[in-house]
Write a structure and sequence with these properties.
alpha+beta; Arc Repressor Mutant, subunit A; two-stranded antiparallel ribbon; DUF433; WH-like_DNA-bd_sf
């Protein structure tokens, strides 16, 4: 499953301009699927970008770039989403798989504040003061699960894409409570959530 820039923006909290800047040379993260003519991100890209946005709230971008460069110096060349990175608001540490040892990737010291994947997936406020959605539950009735539809947001408990339901409601000819005639598993509340989430995604598209 691939994620266009506007959906990546909503799910990660990165603005459209940040995404454009971060994939420009020297790239902070080049989309794993495609950069041109249209950027398409993988699920792993989305997780990594969300981590960067969370770190960026605490650190200058250059320190994040330095940390990623240091990973390469250590021959750690897997996708950035493979690594657990933590910050103390001064530097970036790489935490080992057992969570016991840390390596300073920016060569500074301080009291470490653990930034776990649970923190990255939970709602937070980005550097611009904007609320970033809960990654696993961007709306009450919308879910993101990597092993379901490749991580594309779906109606909770189903394999039905949120945008399929949003499209059904888009011209106003079908009301939310009528969605069950087409998709019995979708409540009116879930249909409204799908439409609202889609509206957020479309707004990002307009800010290109």
């Amino acid at each position: 499953m691939t994620f266009p820039s506007e959906l990546a923006s909503v799910l990660t909290g990165a603005s459209m301009s940040q995404l454009s800047h971060w994939r420009s040379a020297p790239a902070l993260l080049a989309p794993e699927v495609a950069s041109k003519p249209k950027a398409l991100y993988s699920f792993r890209d989305i997780v990594a970008l969300r981590t960067f946005v969370r770190l960026r709230r605490e650190l200058p971008l250059q320190r994040i770039r330095t940390a990623l460069s240091t990973l390469q110096d250590y021959d750690l060349t897997d996708h950035p989403s493979s690594y657990q990175l933590v910050t103390d608001s001064k530097t970036v540490f790489l935490v080992d798989d057992e969570g016991k040892d840390m390596v300073d990737l920016v060569k500074r010291r301080g009291q470490t504040v653990l930034l776990s994947m649970a923190d990255v997936f939970a709602p937070f406020t980005n550097l611009q003061g904007q609320d970033v959605v809960d990654f696993r539950r961007p709306r009450q009735n919308i879910e993101v699960r990597e092993k379901r539809m490749g991580g594309w947001p779906t109606i909770a408990g189903t394999r039905l894409r949120y945008d399929t339901v949003a499209l059904l409601l888009s011209d106003g000819s079908v009301q939310p409570e009528e969605t069950q005639y087409y998709y019995p598993e979708v409540s009116a509340e879930a249909a409204l959530d799908a439409a609202d989430f889609d509206f957020s995604v479309q707004q990002r598209r307009q800010t290109r």
